[in-house]
Design a protein that fits this description.
This protein has 440 residues and is of the alpha+beta class. The chain has three domains: 95 residues, Beta Barrel (conserved putative lor/sdh protein from methanococcus maripaludis s2 fold); 113 residues, Beta Barrel (Elongation Factor Tu (Ef-tu), domain 3), CATH 2.40.30; 101 residues, Four Helix Bundle (Hemerythrin (Met), subunit A). The strands form five sheets. Strands 14-13-17-3-12-16-15 form a seven-stranded antiparallel sheet. A hairpin with a 5-residue loop joins strand 20 and strand 21. The longest helix is centred in the N-terminal third of the chain and has 51 residues. The termini are far apart.
Length: 440
């Protein structure tokens, strides 16, 4: 009996903990949110983009070429002889002012030739004076002989003079006439002899003047091949003189790059007679010469001169000649050196502004296609027409509208319609626009 009562009380003690546990479970279940069904989202890939902009494009072409003097003078000996005097600083690289005495050849032989020619001309003057005086005498003798012949002829008609006397008088008259004719002929030849002797004097004077050579303009000595006391012969090149007041650069350009400067130009081509005078206005070329001097780029504004007469057969490039006046006056120590013969420089030629060109980065064009992010952030693959490329950008004529987002990075894989996360590349955007406007 006691055992049954004890078992009943033990069973009652188990109920309270069980009830508490059930209450805790119910409480926790009442505060828990029901499971939410997760929605699947399409994955997106981040890409760098720039906006296709419409800009007023400054077209340019770049070529390279050596600096050369605008004018070269060759000092060629026009007379032979020993060099007796030279300019004290007659050395390669020296800059010589205009009018400077460069060298002098021994003039003794040419002074003697001039003296001889002058003496012969003076002798001819005396001969002419004597001939004129003789002519007057000969004419007087002729008149006397004519009167004598007439007198003898009258006497012969009267029978008081023989025929032999008439013949003698006639021979005397003919001899006097021959003498007059000979003297007249001598005087007629004297003008020709005078011109010949005067030419001889002029030549001697010229040869004497050519023994002294002066600088025709400000020049720099090059290729010196003469020294004092050296004998030089006629036609020998003694040295070259490079003009320092003007230099020219014959830069080679790809024909396609020059073509880009004329695209869209509506200016009429001037007539052939006016082309040279209006060439600068017609082409609109604005040349700029650049040279890397180590960590810095030196620049010179230049003038467009002309196009070369032929295309290089090896490189298929066309030469463009530009010039810079007074390069030595434009020197800036440490920043802009003097332009000297042989320096290799870059020439940038800019043309007329082309308004309203749509430009995109050159690297964004892949086999004639461009990746575009549309308004739904989806990838579109567009076929485009490239008008021309210049530096880091290309000009699009068809297939892209201004304001569209152009992908410049490489989405992998590139599938039309895939979702993208467009991240603007501000630095590339600015650099492309600056390059298109010529604001490097």
């Amino acid at each position: 009996m006691n055992t049954d009562k004890h078992s009943r009380w033990r069973a009652l003690w188990v109920l309270p903990p069980l009830a508490i546990g059930i209450l805790v479970v119910i409480f926790m279940a009442s505060g828990k949110q029901p499971p939410v069904k997760a929605e699947q989202s399409e994955p997106s890939q981040s890409v760098r983009v720039v906006e296709a902009r419409k800009v007023d494009l400054l077209p340019e072409a770049r070529g390279y070429g050596p600096v050369q003097p605008g004018k070269v003078w060759a000092a060629v000996a026009q007379v032979s002889g020993r060099v007796i005097d030279t300019y004290p600083r007659l050395r390669n690289g020296e800059i010589v002012p205009s009018g400077t005495l460069l060298f002098r050849i021994d003039p003794v032989d040419y002074e003697l030739q001039l003296a001889q020619a002058s003496a012969e001309l003076a002798e001819l003057d005396i001969q002419e004076q004597n001939a004129r005086a003789s002519l007057e005498i000969d004419k007087s003798n002729l008149r006397v002989a004519q009167r004598e012949k007439e007198r003898i002829t009258k006497l012969s008609n009267k029978g008081t003079a023989s025929q032999s006397d008439v013949d003698s008088a006639e021979r005397a008259m003919l001899n006097a006439r021959t003498t007059v004719q000979n003297t007249t002929n001598t005087l007629a030849l004297m003008p020709t002899q005078r011109r010949l002797l005067e030419a001889k004097v002029s030549r001697a004077e010229r040869d004497l003047a050519n023994t002294v050579v002066r600088a025709p303009f400000n020049l720099r000595i090059a290729d010196l091949a003469v020294e004092k006391d050296q004998y030089v012969s006629i036609g020998q090149t003694l040295f070259n003189g490079d003009a320092v007041e003007r230099v020219e650069i014959v830069a080679q350009f790809a024909i396609s790059s020059l073509r880009n400067l004329f695209i869209g130009q509506q200016r009429p081509v001037p007539a052939i007679a006016e082309l040279q005078e209006r060439l600068q206005d017609f082409t609109g070329f604005q040349p700029l010469v650049r040279m890397d001097i180590g960590g810095e780029v030196a620049e010179w504004e230049a003038d467009f001169v002309r196009l070369s007469d032929e295309v290089d057969p090896q490189t298929r490039t066309l030469g463009v000649v530009v010039s810079i006046d007074n390069p030595f006056k434009k020197v800036i120590p440490g920043k802009r050196p003097p332009l000297s013969k042989g320096m290799f420089v870059q020439v940038v030629i800019r043309g007329h502004i082309q308004p309203g060109r749509v430009v995109v980065p050159r690297g964004a064009i892949r086999d004639g296609k461009v990746y575009v992010v549309d308004e739904n952030q989806l990838l579109q693959i567009r076929q485009v027409s490239v008008l021309f490329s210049q530096g880091p950008f290309s000009v699009i004529s068809d297939g892209i509208q201004a304001g569209e987002q152009i992908v410049v990075s490489d989405p992998v894989p590139a599938v039309a319609g895939m979702r993208l996360n467009a991240v603007p590349d501000e630095q590339l955007q600015v650099s492309i626009l600056n390059a298109a406007r010529g604001e490097e």
